[in-house]
Amino acid sequence: MLPEEYRKMADVEDVMWYYRALHRHVAAALRGVAGPGAAVLDAGCGTGGLLRRLAAAEPGWRLQGLDFSEIAVQTTRERTGLPVTLGSVTALPFGDGQFDAVVSCDVVCQVPDARAALAEFRRVVRPGGAVVLTMPAYRWMYSYHDRQVGNLWRCSRGELNALLRASGWRPVWSSYWNALPFPLAVLRRKVFPAGEGESDVRLYPPAVEGTFGAMMNLEHRWLAAGNALPFGSSVLVVARVDAV
Q: Of 22, 18, 221, 241, nearest to 134 (Cα)?
């Protein structure tokens, strides 16, 4: 991801509707598979917004960040006070079975070898451990935004589940999200796209933020009840490594 995108992320991820919903979904999913005191790795932690949300959601979690960008690592250390390591998701600098769970948000789509990243996630979690992943959905939705933020590919829920199985994971729950705003996302990305060199990472006017935030509240209630959404511009998956 380009350095300016990290700066934009740091400026808005605590307040922008998208990041607030993303972090809420991931925290809820993680709470279902990681108990108090669990060691959790945020693989591709960006500028630390998710780690801040996880620390608030469950103070007992032992949180560790990792990112490939020195800018991201330094920013996250300053914003969270948590341990953050410089490194790649395809060659994690951690020992086998060191974590109870890994979370990784819109990161596996930024590496050419997704199986290598998922195999590394599997290596560093203990038997019975879990991964919570989010990914941008649908190859046909690839656009200027993906190019700007460093996404190399997008995938369907079925494709992501298949990729996890091929990498030794057992998906236990998956859903699309960002379903209610999806028609607007299609218009923005495919019909009336912004120019190259732009992304959609920004804080929108209060009325827009409020409307999209309300949509995300409805989706969160649906997903928190254990339901799934049939479409959306993002995918959320929870998978486990079976205990031996």
A: 22
Average pLDDT over the chain, rounded to an integer: 95
pLDDT digits over 159-189, tens only? Answer: 999 999 999 999 999 999 999 999 999 999 9
Identify the domain containing residue 32 by its residue range. 3-240
pLDDT greater than 80 at residue 149: yes
State residue 115 phi and psi, 5-degree precision: -65, -35
User: Can you tell me whether residue 64 is helix, strand or coil?
Assistant: strand
Judge residue 76's burial from the number of C-beta atoms within 10 Å of its C-beta, 0-12 exposed, 13-18 middle, 19 or more buried.
Answer: buried
* Distance separating alpha carbons of residues 123 and 117, to the nearest angstrom: 10
DSSP state at residue 205: P
Q: In what order do the strands lie in the sheet with 84-86?
A: 84-86, 62-67, 39-43, 99-105, 125-136, 234-240, 170-177
The domain that holds 136 is classified in CATH as 3.40.50.150
CA distance 87 to 98: 16
Q: Which of 66, 46, 43, 42 is nearest to 54 (CA)?
A: 42
Model confidence at 244, in pLDDT bands (50, 70, 90)? low
pTM value surpassing 0.90: yes
